[in-house]
Design a protein that fits this description.
By secondary structure, the chain is of the alpha/beta class. The protein has two domains: 188 residues, no CATH class; 331 residues, Alkaline Phosphatase, subunit A, CATH 3.40.720.10. It is built from 23 helices and ten strands. Strand 5, helix 15 and strand 6 form a beta-alpha-beta unit. Helix 5 packs across helix 6, helix 11 packs parallel to helix 19 and helix 16 runs parallel beside helix 19. The termini are far apart. The C terminus is likely disordered.
Length: 548
Amino acid sequence: MSVSKRIFSFLVALALVNALLLAPQWVLAGGPGPLWIAMEAWLVVGLFALLPVRPWVGRLAAGTAALLLLLGLLGVADAATRQSLARPLNIYLDAVLLSAVDHLLTGALGPAMSTAVMIGAIVCVALLGWLLARLLAPRLGGHPTRASRVLGLALVGVFAVGILGGGVPALTRRMSLPAIRIAVDQTRHFIRMLSERERFTADLDRVPADYATLPGLLAHLRGRDVLLGFVESYGISALDDARYAPVILPRLDELAARTRAAGLHLVTGALVAPSQGGQSWLAHGSLLSGAWLDNQLRYDLLLASGRETLIDDFRRAGHRTVAIMPAITLAWPEGERLGYDEIHARKDIDYAGPSLNWVTMPDQFTWSFLQRTIRTPAAGQARPLFAELGLISSHAPWTPILTVLDDWESIGDGAVFARWKNAGERPTDLWQDVEGIRQHYALSIDYALAAMIGYAERYVDDRTLLIVLGDHQPAPLITGDDASRAVPVHVISADPALIEPFLAWGFVPGARPAPDRTPPRMDAFRDWFVRAYSDPDAPPRRTARAED
């Protein structure tokens, strides 16, 4: 290898490592922006340019390449987490999300394409590591040449300028330490998580363990069905953002008009969700438990604690508790732990229609399944119902967009939805157009609301309390980086007495939340709800046999 080729090898290595470490920041910034120099790249390549080429240097280069790749991949994962979940990566907690990413890819691309993408990514990373190791230790014996020494000293000198700073401001403001930053951040997260158990235990001590001794537990809901529906990615930005409001606000006005025409009462407020862009279970868990679950460790600790939730409160009050979760396609031990009387995951739902990319079944079918299968007197032996629904049509990739069927009686087993099989844009095509993604997001929320309206006007009566809310805001790609984490909450019933407690809590009549009120967090819901609907003066609850 000639001297010029050796210099070229180091320069290519510098370009690769520099780009590898800075690319995540460029992605977050929407372009290169002010950062041009990853100082670690210049130091590493400069030091290798000063080393003689010996066998041990080759082994050192291989290990260094592996470490740089790891830090680069962590940077990529951090950027992806910030864009999708609006928070930094925490590998202590987020390793569990790899299975969720695989599930999302499989649902959006299909098993074959998803597998091909993952294999291709692994091969590319392996090839990049091999190339980088070869570039850092070019095969040339002897000591460094004058040219490589000059190059090495120059690169190390740039690193020194960046560390010392100040002297060359035009240069230093374009420099960064991305690899060190990601390593330090993950170390801090790890240290913080070591004490998270103690913090959560202290927080949990402030949450009632159960309401077994509360007089007249949920007495105001005796004989009433309570339906709690979480609409995927329905955040306050759908109402407030000028890109989505022209689609969503008319639908909300329709919600107000049609419920009023059906003799129903409607109030709306907002709650703050613990996550954004994903991890819906943190929102479900926070609202049901009364504990603030803003990371996976807290969720796991809650499940391990044996603490009761709103599910236990309803069961103790005499309700039959049911979960309808069409997005659950694998084993769900968390659901077993939460103690529903019945769990209807994908395999338990008699849906004969097509999957719609990630979405296993449309929301209108989920509502229809609730009515024709769960809310029948025979199914519940006349016990009132508490049902939690996961409504997933507004989950990314937001294609295809369905039309709500007017004839609900025709839905049956869902075969009627076959017309939408392979309809709409392919996710791989749609997601190349940012504006197209945002338009489809709004349309998917519009569909979810339209399906809910159709259900409410047909099946909500004076013995039903329907609560529909978003689980979290969508990803920052949709909302922007500084959006609120609030989600709308709509409450509907034909009995005004069932709505009154929400008005007292600050909700307002109609389909739009009050714009000037700071919403409470989701963990405030359980304690408020249980106390608001309990009645210490109520007579003891009759047994199920007596009620029958």
